[in-house]
Structures are given as structure tokens and as C-alpha cells.
């Protein structure tokens, strides 16, 4: 919730073109919160995978059943899978934002050859998982290949269990999968830059910032927008699980929140930084 709140404040500054030192402070706060979220999610994922963990008092299994719904769902909508999705997306997008930020420590660049390909793989997963989930639904669950892939994804997210059958999606779950697909599309806009950074390194990025002074603002900001949207999705997911409101109420509100966190401020950023940025040409410079 705190990360989403910071996201709204930063998005507001984009709308009004307030790119200054205080903007960097909001970015740095987002990085700290993003890393914290990732650490907590990793802890949860590891807990999910501790299938042999036992409660000392009664011998019942703990971990997966305590924090993740035991009711498996289809593909990316599955409770365990969506937590893995949120954690990995947040980690990759936070890295890309920090890597292109004016606040980036020089040490971070030394790991481009490792973090670049890893993040690129995560960005591709973030669109593939919801896409396959939707394909499975709209093809009436007839594809054995897609079914096998989704069972593998859900099984791995749940600690390597064997998934015998995937339940059909409800209409609301289709909407949620579509929302995650849109978030995955946003992630794919980071992929060309991630690939170029991996192949060409800091010399390329230094040249880009010299030719396009606003490029650092736009790249780091749009990556954070992806983080905000993903974590807003996770907040909505957890609120629905806790019964704070029904998913039918939460999902439309989440959609409006994502528009406020991503689309509007991105358009505003392009407007304010228009003559200082490059949308495509900078990849080849």
C-alpha cells in the first residue's frame, strides 16, 4: 500500500512536469520499498516451497496452507503463481528503473551481463503467463500443450507439486488475467532497452544521456510505473482474499488506479520531456 501511495505522488509530479531533485527522492524511496516488497515475496515463495515444514504442536503442514490458498486455479490466476509473478516483475522492473536512473550507483552496471538477461526473461514471462492463460480459456481448454505448460507453471510456483487438473476461469478471473496481460505488455516495452544495455553496456547509456538529457527520466519513470501497477494488482489480490471487498468491486477500482499510475503520467512525461527524449532512435546510438 505504501509503495502504491508513493507511486501516486510520483505520478502526480509527472502530470505536472516536476522533474527535479525531490523527484529523485521519490524514485529512491520507490526503490527501497520495491526491494523490500521483493524480499518479503521471496520469503513467502520460499515458505511455499518448504513442503516438508511442520507445525511442532500438531504436525500439520505449514507454509503453503497458511499463506497461499490451497485451491489451485488456472495459470497466472493461481494464488501461488500470481505471487511469483508479482515478485519477479517487481524485481526486474525495479532493477531496470534503477539502472537507468540518475541515482544509479556505478556498481550496478557491473552486473548488466547477469541482471540484464535475467530481467529480460522475467519480462517475457510476465506477458507469456497471462497470454497462455487467456489462450487456454478462449480455446475452450482444448490445447494439450498449453494445458501442460500452465500445469508446469502452477506446479513450480507451488513448490514442485504435480497439478492434475486446471479449473476453468470465471468471467472475473478472465478480466484479472487480461489485466495482468496488459501489465506484461508494459513490461515488454522495457525489453529492447534491457537487451541493448546487456549487449552495449554503460558506454551506450552514457552516450544516450548525452544526446537525450531527458531519457533517464522517461526510462526510470516508466519502469517504476510498471512496478506500481503490479503492486496495485497485488494489493487488490490480497484485499479480495481478505474479504475487504468482492473482486467484482475491486477489479474495476484497480483498473482506474492503474490508469492513474501508468497511462496518464506516461503521456504527461512524453509531453513535458518531448524535445529531450528519443522513443526509438536511441537504441541504435
Q: In words, what does this structure look like?
A:
The chain crosses the membrane at residues 29-46, 118-138, 177-199, 250-273. Keywords: Membrane, Transmembrane, Transmembrane helix. With 285 residues, the chain is mostly helical. It has one domain. Helix content is 71%, strand content 0%. It has ten helices and no strands. The protein has helices spanning 2-15, 21-49, 64-67, 79-100, 112-138, 144-157, 171-188, 191-211, 215-242, 247-272. α4 (79-100) runs antiparallel to α9 (215-242) and α5 (112-138) packs across α8 (191-211). The longest helix has 29 residues, at 21-49. It is globular and about 55 Å long. 40% of the residues are buried.
Write the layout of secondary structure elements.
Blueprint: H1 2-15, H2 21-49, H3 64-67, H4 79-100, H5 112-138, H6 144-157, H7 171-188, H8 191-211, H9 215-242, H10 247-272
Q: Cα distance, first to last residue?
A: 39 Å
Overall mean confidence score, pLDDT: 87
The global form is globular
Count up the helices.
10
SS strand fraction:
under 5%
Radius of gyration based on Cα positions: 20 Å
Helical content stands at over 70%
Count the beta strands.
0
SSE series: HHHHHHHHHH
Structural class by sheet pairing and helices: mainly alpha
The biggest beta sheet reads:
none
Transmembrane segments: 29-46, 118-138, 177-199, 250-273
Keywords: Membrane, Transmembrane, Transmembrane helix
Amino acid at each position: 500500500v505504501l509503495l502504491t501511495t508513493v507511486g501516486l505522488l510520483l505520478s502526480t509530479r509527472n502530470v505536472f512536469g516536476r522533474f527535479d531533485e525531490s523527484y529523485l527522492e521519490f524514485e529512491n524511496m520507490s526503490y527501497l520499498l520495491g526491494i523490500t516488497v521483493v524480499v518479503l515475496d521471496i520469503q513467502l515463495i520460499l515458505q511455499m516451497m518448504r513442503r516438508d515444514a511442520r507445525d511442532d504442536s500438531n504436525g500439520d503442514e505449514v507454509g503453503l496452507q497458511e499463506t497461499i490458498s490451497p485451491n489451485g486455479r488456472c495459470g497466472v490466476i493461481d494464488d501461488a503463481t500470481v505471487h511469483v509473478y508479482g515478485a519477479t516483475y517487481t524485481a526486474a522492473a525495479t532493477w531496470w528503473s534503477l539502472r537507468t536512473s540518475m541515482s544509479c550507483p556505478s556498481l550496478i552496471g557491473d552486473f548488466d551481463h547477469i541482471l540484464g538477461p535475467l530481467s529480460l526473461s522475467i519480462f517475457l514471462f510476465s506477458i507469456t503467463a497471462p497470454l497462455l492463460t487467456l489462450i487456454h480459456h478462449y480455446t475452450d481448454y482444448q490445447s494439450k500443450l498449453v494445458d501442460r505448460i500452465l500445469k508446469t507453471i502452477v506446479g513450480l510456483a507451488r513448490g514442485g507439486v504435480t497439478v492434475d487438473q486446471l479449473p476453468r476461469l470465471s468471467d472475473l478471473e478472465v478480466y484479472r488475467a487480461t489485466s495482468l496481460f496488459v501489465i506484461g505488455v508494459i513490461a515488454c516495452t522495457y525489453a529492447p532497452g534491457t537487451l541493448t544495455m546487456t549487449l552495449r553496456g554503460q558506454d551506450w547509456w552514457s552516450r544516450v544521456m548525452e544526446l537525450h538529457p531527458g531519457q533517464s527520466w522517461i526510462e526510470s519513470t516508466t519502469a517504476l510505473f510498471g512496478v506500481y501497477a503490479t503492486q496495485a494488482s497485488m494489493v487488490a489480490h490480497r484485499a479480495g482474499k481478505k474479504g475487504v471487498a468482492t473482486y467484482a468491486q475491486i477489479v474495476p477500482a484497480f483498473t482506474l488506479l492503474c490508469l492513474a499510475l501508468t497511462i496518464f503520467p506516461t503521456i504527461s512525461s512524453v509531453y513535458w520531456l518531448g524535445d529531450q527524449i528519443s522513443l526509438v532512435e536511441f537504441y541504435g546510438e
